[in-house]
Amino acid sequence: MKLIRTTLPYLVASIGLVFTASAMGQYVWLDAAGRKVFSDQPAPANTPAKRILQQPGKAALAAPVASSDADEKTVGKTADGADAAVKTAPAPKIASKDKDLEAAKKKIDDAAAAKLKADEEVRNVAKADNCVRAKQAKTTLDSGVRLTHTNAKGERGYMDEATRMVETKRLDGIIGSDCK
Fold first, then answer.
1. pLDDT score of 4
2. What's the CA angle centered on 77, arms 72 and 82, to 5 degrees?
């Protein structure tokens, strides 16, 4: 009984892995327009073998690399071992992108740019407000008037010189960063 309890989880896990291995089969091929197609179904029968990039159970084939040079040449070996220039076929041209997709992407990019601009404007307004408040507080501190403050316990007390200096340095930092 103890043997079944200890081996049962491993048995269930290994059976699950066996069944998921069949789900990993994926076909990849280039369609007539030169776009990659990913599917769990095989390519149509009229698809040439050189356009099939991947099949389950077979090693992935090298994808053709797009090149602007239509007369691309490679050097190969002849039967007697001499170098010979072999002309290779140019890579298929990729069709123009979908216009609706481009318009949607442009619309999203424009919306993101507008949001960034609006966020920047909100930050600039907040900085200007912080600048005005910091300058007012600094003027009050520099006037020498006795000020009260609330400590960490919530008690009210008068601001001593050490606290006044700390507050002055803090306000100078705010003025330096927000008042540009």
1. 73
2. 115
Q: Tell me what percent of the residues of the chain surpass a pLDDT of 90.
A: 31
Whose tokens are 């966020």? That residue is: 119
- 131-156: pLDDT as tens digits: 999 999 999 999 988 898 888 899 99
Segment 104-135, tens digit of pLDDT: 999 999 999 999 999 999 999 999 999 999 99
Give CA separation, 123 vs 104, 114, 131, 132, 173, in Å. Answer: 29, 14, 12, 14, 17
